[in-house]
Amino acid sequence: MSATTTSQNKASTSTSSFPGLPVVPPSDPSLTTPANMSIPRAIRKSFLAVSQSEGAGARVRRSIGTPQLRNFSPFLMLDHFSIPPSAGFPDHPHRGQETITYLLSGAVDHEDFAGNVGTINAGDLQFMTAGRGIVHAEMPRQNEDGSANVGMQLWVDLPAKLKKCEPRYRDLRAEEIPQVKLDDDKVQIKVISGQSHGVDSVKELAYTPVWLLDITIKPGGKVQQALPVGWNAFAYTLEGAVQFGVGKDAATIQKYHNTVFEQKGDSVVAEVDANATEDAQFILVAGLPLDQKIVQYGPFVVNSQEEVYQAMSDYQTFSNGFERARGFQSEIGKRMDH
Questions:
Q1: Which of 49, 103, 107, 176 lies 20 to 30 Å from 120 when distance is taken between CA atoms?
Q2: pLDDT of residue 34
Q3: Which residues are part of a known binding site for Fe cation?
Q4: Given phi > 0 = left and psi -120 to 50 = alpha, else beta, which region is 258?
């Protein structure tokens, strides 16, 4: 998406990690602490993500990146998007961040100025590192029933030393995602990134350390999910109602709400009332906070005002990472002309 974006593209640079990036060490106590000794995180705040227009004809429920929750490091923006077949995100630039797109229904095509093209379908994800610069388009497929293409897109800040790296993409297909079933199958967890109850995700997806779990709980189900100590964490409820927290700190959260957890603690407890009439589904996300200033101007995320001016100049003059933008017009973006 543009200042919002559904990032989707294929192939690119090396798969090796950059040295020196902070990661959670295997000895992190949050990963080995027995559940009965764990410290559940309390809720800091929970609020409704209000629907708004974005791009060309799309609707998004934005929670991170609003006055309610701005720059929740390393997270910059979270959109729950709905793109009808006639809408989309034609050619637009990015610099300085990573985007994680999780498609829940439908299909979205992507194309960039380096010739990368592809499609992600329901259940698939794409991790895009914009780095020093990318221009791409993201356009929905026409569904037979005319329904919208729905998904989540998360913008993640890049450490300052990686903001000038070459852009790259990682596609993660639905069938590649390991799953965990708990509490007599009343809890199902898709381990997109991170760890859950002894199951590790596919590696090498993003440069900034982020955990992303898609959790579905049936009525009467309960789970206690360990999270790395000191990381910022939130849950976005997609369906149903879920209770987070324990004891007097517990609260029942309805769908389309973003629930932000306190940094103190090493786990999140979630359950669904046994009398509930539907399952609850939410994504639980945690990320390593970055100790750096954030200066954002639309699709450019840098560390100083001077770098904003530089990014705008580079984009307009086709330089310093935007050379291939000169004369670029995506084929899929032309759909908006019809």
A1: 49
A2: 55
A3: 92, 94, 136, 138
A4: beta
Q: Sign of the CA dihedral 31, 217, 173, 8?
A: negative
Has residue 291 got a pLDDT over 60?
yes
Residue 274 within a domain: yes
Here the contacts of 239-242 (C-beta below 8 Å, separation 24 or greater) are 239/278, 239/279, 239/280, 239/281, 240/272, 240/276, 240/278, 240/279, 240/280, 240/281, 241/272, 241/273, 241/276, 241/280, 242/217, 242/270, 242/271, 242/272, 242/280, 242/282
Q: What is the CATH number of the domain that holds 137?
A: 2.60.120.10
Pick 38 or 28 by higher pLDDT. Answer: 38
Residue linked to tokens 């020093």: 132
pLDDT at 23: 41
Let me know if residue 318 belongs to a domain. Answer: no
Count of domains for the chain: 1
Alpha-carbon distance of 296 to 304, in angstroms, equals 9
Query: Does 152 fall in a domain?
Result: yes
The two three-digit tokens of residue 239, written as one number: 């369906």
Q: Is 315 contained in some domain?
A: no
Sign of torsion, CA 262 266 269 270?
positive
Q: Is 156:209 a contact under the CB 8 Å cutoff?
A: no
What local confidence, expressed as pLDDT, does residue 338 receive?
A: 53
Within its chain, how far is the Cα of 199 from the centroid? 20
The residue segments making up the domain with residue 239 are: 30-287
Give the span between the Cα atoms of 167 and 98, in whole angstroms.
9
| Residue 149 identity (one-letter amino acid) | N
And the tokens for 125? 């994800």
Residue 15 has pLDDT above 60, yes or no: no
pTM summary value:
0.87
Single out the residue of 81, 88, 105 nearest to residue 139, CA to CA: 88
